[in-house]
Amino acid sequence: xxxxxxxxxxxxxxxxxxxxxxxxxxxxxxxxxxxxxxxxxxxxxxxxxxxxxxxxxxxxxxxxxxxxxxxxxxxxxxxxxxxxxxxxxxxxxxxxxxxxxxxxxxxxxxxxxxxxxxxxxxxxxxxxxxxxxxxxxxxxxxxxxxxxxxxxxxxxxxxxxxxxxxxxxxxxxxxxxxxxxxxxxxxxxxxxxxxxxxxxxxxxxxxxxxxxxxxxxxxxxxxxxxxxxxxxxxxxxxxxxxxxxxxxxxxxxxxxxxxxx
Length: 261
Hints:
The chain is α/β, with parallel strands linked by helices. The chain has twelve helices and nine strands. Strand 6 (148-149), helix 8 (155-164) and strand 7 form a beta-alpha-beta unit. The longest helix has 14 residues, at 244-257.
């Protein structure tokens, strides 16, 4: 099993933390990841900054632009993953778009990602209908392939997502882009039911999650909860402060406490 599969096999719930690699600085990203893990993050989505982040809201868009300005690209993110892996066995999911992987070369990316300690890949704008070759290459390298399912996904698409996913399935809580919300979307529970009818894989819910109360509500129906924009908001606000790591550790701990509510 990959580290991702082992995580969901060994724990009833998983806090999944997204971070844009390279923001505020590539050299600092490993320390930020370590802080999130100390706080309770069970899996890290390591985001590759991209110039056209169509699925990301304004907070993560700005983070990506700052990271790009620091020279962060896919190759650099894999170097960051190597640094993280020197000190941690936390599962790492490469979170990126099709274009950077295509330019890098799918086979080369898979091999280099595996060598760097990456456990799986999520191509956020990948068409699952055309994902057969990509999935085969990633699986041959020993990497999980995570796909997004949305409330608007057709039954046919959900079946393909169930077929091509491994590790877990990422459920988008609502339509639109990433960003903090005041409450959990009413579309989550029906989507969980539809997906459970098609797959035994663990389900993780993201987009809009920002509070322990959200974690508690989602945790009652799905084992995984994904938090991204709320984390990147802290990095945006306190990126120049020496206590950023401590703030992230505390925030991760607050979010993780939601599973106990």
